[in-house]
Design brief:
About 35% of the residues lie in helices and about 15% in strands. It is built from 14 helices and 13 strands. A 7-stranded mixed sheet has the order 3-2-1-4-5-6-7, with helices on both faces.
Length: about 400
């Protein structure tokens, strides 16, 4: 990760990285263009790779769950993501892999592949194409060589133009294309109904979820700590809500520094690192709404169809916002020409942090006042003035 950060922080590094990936993307393109002679498989057996961060994996799960209604699903899951298993379709087969040991265990990993296996690819990074070859997966469909076309390997398919760079809409286009060409749906066990597997967490008081951090690799993409504290205090005092901060273990001390001296500390709970992903999902489903940066927790809330307000600072909402959720809202206030600095390019490229050359200006583009104003605009809060002295007037 540190090497990637250094490479993509210089003009020559960006040039080398981008052009090398474009050059390598010719391999799946040529494979799709000239070596696809077989017929579409007679059975639907879909293969996915879940990799990267939690947000990337959760974004893919809508497509995974939809295709589980058409056939069996095989999920290769990075060992860092295996605690998402409770969200996977019931009829899926899950194979946990470790990137560092992948080659060593290749024979064992191939056991999940059969003559009907279809890799569904949601990103054109060359690593996925290499894994397809190593595992001898006969078919592939999706975003194979660039973000402009849906292509196929192993069977004839006229390249289909992609009409949106937004990931949720792009995945819907992949699903529609598979629906057009696949065999009739098989009788299989559908995925879990998210409206029934999660129960209300049982608290007597209404609460909201606040995800205030990004992973340690990212310095951009989060407001100053004081803004989060003022946001939680305002929603506690004037709107009668409790605040639950969530995140991983590395965020516990940072959250503690935000809330430690708050006058309303008895209404604020630091749950960072104290829940499993499944327990966090239960908390999210029981909340009034979720406020989060563009991170994995916000994607999880969107996937669970909870109300979520996402703060976009360094990344593009045109790319990463959920476009098929009425309960999904976001704020994006570009104040600098560099905003956003991370988006989805037309060429295959990883989404990883760069060194900011603009003093993290984006982190100051949204304030707690902006968040409260937007919450009121969409009707998620109403004035109640339930607690304490009105210290904010």
């Amino acid at each position: 990760m540190s090497l990637k950060k250094v490479v993509t922080s210089s003009q020559i590094g960006v040039f080398i990285d981008s052009n090398l990936r474009q050059l390598l993307s010719l391999l799946p393109y040529l494979h799709s263009r000239f070596f696809s002679k077989r017929k579409f498989p007679t059975e639907n057996y879909f293969v996915f790779f879940l990799y990267g961060g939690y947000g990337d994996a959760i974004l893919t799960l809508d497509l995974v769950n939809k295709l589980s209604g058409l056939g069996k699903v095989l999920l290769y899951v990075d060992s860092r993501l295996e605690n998402l298993a409770f969200l996977f379709p019931k009829n899926s087969t899950v194979i946990i892999y470790n990137k560092r040991k992948f080659i060593r265990n290749i024979a064992k990993l191939r056991k999940g592949i059969n003559k009907n296996s279809i890799l569904v690819q949601t990103s054109p990074i060359i690593e996925i194409y290499i894994l397809k070859l190593l595992l001898k997966i006969p078919y592939a469909i999706g975003i194979l060589s660039d973000f402009k076309y849906i292509r196929a390997i192993g069977f004839l398919l006229q390249p289909t133009i992609v009409h949106s760079n937004n990931r949720t809409l792009l995945f819907e286009e992949i699903y529609k294309k598979i629906m057009e060409i696949s065999s009739p749906p098989v009788i299989c066990e559908q995925h879990k109904n998210l409206n029934t597997i999660f129960d209300y967490c049982g608290t007597q008081n209404k609460y909201f979820i606040l995800s205030a951090m990004k992973t340690n690799e990212w310095q951009m993409g989060r407001m100053p700590e004081l803004e989060y504290r003022q946001l939680s205090e305002l929603l506690i005092q004037k709107y009668g809500l409790n605040a639950i901060y969530v995140g991983d273990e590395s965020e516990y001390l940072k959250v503690d520094s935000i809330i430690r001296d708050s006058k309303f500390s008895k209404y604020i709970f630091n749950m960072a690192g104290k829940t499993t992903i499944e327990e966090l999902s239960i908390l999210i489903k029981g909340s009034e709404f979720v406020i989060g940066n563009d991170n994995g927790i916000s994607h999880l809330a969107a996937y669970l169809r909870a109300k979520v307000m996402v703060l976009f600072m360094f990344s593009s909402p045109n790319i990463y916002a959920w476009k098929n959720r009425s309960s999904y809202k976001y704020i994006f206030n570009p104040i600098e020409k560099c905003m956003p600095c991370v988006g989805l390019p037309s060429a295959p490229k990883d989404n990883y942090p760069v060194r900011c050359k603009n003093n993290l200006a984006c982190n100051y583009s949204i304030t707690h006042g902006d968040v409260v104003k937007e919450l009121k605009r969409v009707g998620w809060i109403e004035d109640s003035s339930l607690r304490g002295d009105d210290i904010f007037l």
